[in-house]
Amino acid sequence: MSSKRSVYDAEPIPGAARDVIDGLMETGDLFRYTAKVSQVTLLEKEFAAYMGSKYALAVNSASSAIYLSMLCVGVKPGDQVLIPAWTFAAVPSAVVHAGALPVLAEVGENLRLDMADFEAKLNGNIAAVVISHMRGHTSDMDAIQALCNARGIPLIEDAAHSLGTLWNNRKIGTIGAVGCFSFQSYKMVNGGEGGILLTDDPDIIAKAVFMSGAYEHNWSKHGYPEVPFEKYQNLFPLFNLRMNNLSAAVIRPQIPLIDERVAKGLENYNYVAGKLNASPLISVPPADPRERRAPDSLQFNLVGFDDAQARRVMEISTARGNPIAIFGLQGDNARVFWNWKFIGNVPELPITRAMLQRACDIRLPVGMSRAELDDTVDFILDCVSEARMLIAS
Description:
The protein is of the alpha/beta class. The chain contains 13 helices and 14 strands. The protein has two domains: 17-256, Aspartate Aminotransferase, domain 2; 258-392, Aspartate Aminotransferase, domain 1 (Alpha-Beta Complex). A seven-stranded mixed sheet has the order 1-9-8-5-4-2-3, with helices on both faces.
C-alpha cells in the first residue's frame, strides 16, 4: 500500500494570527526595537509564563539559542563541551561556532544517553554540558543534573524536540541553567524558523540580550527592571540573532494550543507504538516512567535486519511517498555523528553507530486522525515486511 497522508505536514497557523500579521504588513513594524507594540517581547513574556521561568529571549533559531547559552555560561575558545553523539548537526555546530571542542557521549538503542560513558567523559576538562532531548527522548535528567551540580559544570538543555515534555513533573527546558527551544516548522509550535531560550539567572539573560543584538539601551525594552543590564553595557559583542515581529506574531497564538497538541501527540504516539510493537520485526523503545513525552514523531528499531534489508525499507517507503529514514544508512543524514567532519577528529562510538544503523524515523503530525494513524501503521508494517521478504527470497 501507499501512504495517503504526508507525514511532513506542519502544524497549521491559527486564524488568530491573521489580524496581527495584517496589521504588521500595513505598518511595517517588523523590527522588535522600533515597533509600538513588540510582538517579540509579548512572545517572550507569554512563553516564560507558560513554562514557569523568569526570563525568555526569542532569537532566530534554536541553534542561536544554544550558541548564546554556551557563551553566557562561560564557554571560551578551546574549551570542551560534552554533548550526546545522537543529535542534530546544529548542536556540534553551535559548539564549534563558540570556538569550543565537542566531546561526544554514547547513545544506546533506547535512544538515551549511555550514562556510564557520559559520567566517564564528564571530567575536569569539560566546561559545559549540552543535553539534547533528541526527538523528544529524555535521558536520566536526575542523574545528569546531579553529576553536573557535583562537578560545578553548567547544564544547557537543547529542548528543540521536547516542548511540553515533563520529567518528574518538571518541564523539560527548565531543569538546566538554560533551556533552548525551536519554532521550526516541524516542531510542536510552527514558526517556520525561530527559537527561544529560558533561564532564571539574571546575569545569563543580561548577557544573552546584549549578544543577541540589543545595541545601545535597547535592553530596556525587554521589561526586566531587576536584571543588571547596565553592569554589562558594551562588554559583549553583538551577533544580531534577533527574532522579528512577524515571526513572533505567527508563534504567539500557538502557545495556548501546546497542551492540546501535546495530549493529542502522546495519544497518537502510544496508539501507533502499541500496534508496531506487536510485530516481531519492530521494537519501539519503551517510555521512561519518569517522563511524560510530547511526541510529534516516532522512532523504532528494526529487529533482526541486515544492512540490505534495512536499506530496502528506505527504498520501498520512499517509492510509496513517505520515506522512512534510517539515520545511519542515509549517506548525508545530519543526525549522524560520523557526518560531522567539521568537528575535526570524529571518534569511533560503537554503541551509537549500532543504534543509528537500525533506528527508523518517521513524523507523526499531531493533527492526524485515527484513520490516518491506521494508514500509517499499515504503511510501516507493509514496508518492513516486504523488505524482509524480498531480501530473504
